[in-house]
Amino acid sequence: MLLGLLLVWAQTGTLDIEALSVSHGAGMSRSVQILAFVAIGIGLAVKTPMWPLHTWLPDAHTEAPTVGSVLLAGVLLKMGTYGFARIAIPVLPEGAAAVAPWLGAFAVVGIVYGALACLAQRDLKRMIAYSSVGHMGFVLLGFATLTPVGINGALFANVAHGLITGLLFFLAGAIKDRYHTADMPTLGGGMLATLPRLGSVMTFAAVASLGLPGLAGFWGEMLALLGAFQPAEGLPRGLFLAYMVVGGLGAVLTAAYFLVMLSRVTHGRPHAAGGTMTPPPVPAALAPSSAESAHESPRPPNDTKSPQTTLEALPDIRTHELLAWTPLVILILLLGLWPGLLLSLSTPPVQALLGAVS
What we know:
Order of helices and strands: HHHHHHHHHHHHHHEHEHH
Subcellular location: Endomembrane system; Membrane
Radius of gyration: 23 Å
Number of domains: 1
Membrane topology: Multi-pass membrane protein
Transmembrane segments: 30-46, 67-89, 95-116, 128-149, 155-175, 195-220, 240-260, 322-341
Keywords: Membrane, Transmembrane, Transmembrane helix
Helix content: over 70%
Structural class: mainly alpha
Distance between the termini: 24 Å
Strand order of the largest sheet: 1-2
Protein name: NADH:quinone oxidoreductase/Mrp antiporter transmembrane domain-containing protein
């Protein structure tokens, strides 16, 4: 990204974002714009993250504490897509138009790849992390269309992803705090029976993330697909129609993996009869020997390290969790029912941005 910005500076003599946006790429040839867009775009793609530069994200989310995952999903990932909207596309319009078909291709591969990877996950936080790869693919597809509809959809999906995925990571952290595991088969389902409020909010966040109409996750993805249906003039419409179809398949797969997750975590009967949850067996290599076991003192019944956790004793949503999650739930509903609240704010800047591209 630094090399790309230095190339822009060498050609124009400035790195003032506003001046470069107003100049619409003046002073830079088409080949220079393409080279600079590719260099800057690769740097931004790592941050977004775009397939195949996404591999750092699942590990980062899995190892991070809950607050770290929320900040990463809700704020920090947006720096990559913000860079495309604020710097790469308006400063390098000819480069954006030349690279847009490739950007769209990587975007739709990321959508399908992210969904398939989610279907293969056992860890709840890791599944949510891979879902971010797919959702950010819709954001990149919207940018690739270079249309008001597509870029508005990309910005809307950006905001919606921050709200919904932030809430999902809050919930995953709360579940891990109570059950001491995020392994979905180990959780065993039945959360709606044992922790009805927590299970209900998890269901709400999941259906919002899969794009249920009336919730914030719907509008950004649908507008991105609509932008692919009629891309900007000069872009290959047949290719973008194929992207629209593949993106629609990815939306179906998104619904599939979230429904699978809900069936494993919230629905069904509690994990074990008698209201207890037994953790997975310890591998033989890590199990204590019989001699060590003979000298172990028995644990008292109320010991917090007991191998069984009574499900009835687990707390439902706590007060501080309710205070933190309620604004996110309200905003998800508000933007889903009245998308014009956000679109009215984003449309004028998008039109100004596209003035540099057209």
